[in-house]
Amino acid sequence: MQLTINSIACHRNGICGQPFTVVLFEDQGPEGSPKVAILFDEPLYCAVLDVAKVAAGDIEFGSNSWRGDKYEAPLREAINARNDEQTGEGRKP
Questions:
Q1: Is the pLDDT of residue 83 over 50?
Q2: Nearest residue to 48 via CA among 75, 34, 68
Q3: Dist. CA 54–CA 64, nearest whole Å
């Protein structure tokens, strides 16, 4: 799967909610379009929506539905790589 990551941001979700990460990305495959993903720390907690459809008010299941399990692994890899960059892990002295 070929994804282009545009932006990654962590949200703490208030003072007692579960934190989550938001990823803006482009899917270069046959269903390619700008998408937004929301991922929680637990595996299989990944939601993906098409950005243009959300902007047009379409958040309906079946119309703006994308398989989070299909996108989760490459998105988590991108999040981990970004976290490694920010903490300096993986950099050689």
A1: yes
A2: 68
A3: 8
pLDDT tens-place string over residues 11-23? 998 889 999 999 9
How distant, in Å, are the alpha carbons of 14, 29, 58, 74 from that of 4? 29, 11, 23, 10
62 Cβ contact partners less than 8 Å away, ≥ 6 residues apart: none
pLDDT at residue number 88: 72
By residue count, the chain amounts to 93
Express each pLDDT in 29-40 by its tens digit.
777 899 999 999
Yes or no: say if 64 and 52 are a contact pair by the CB < 8 Å rule: no
Cβ count within 10 A of residue 91: 8
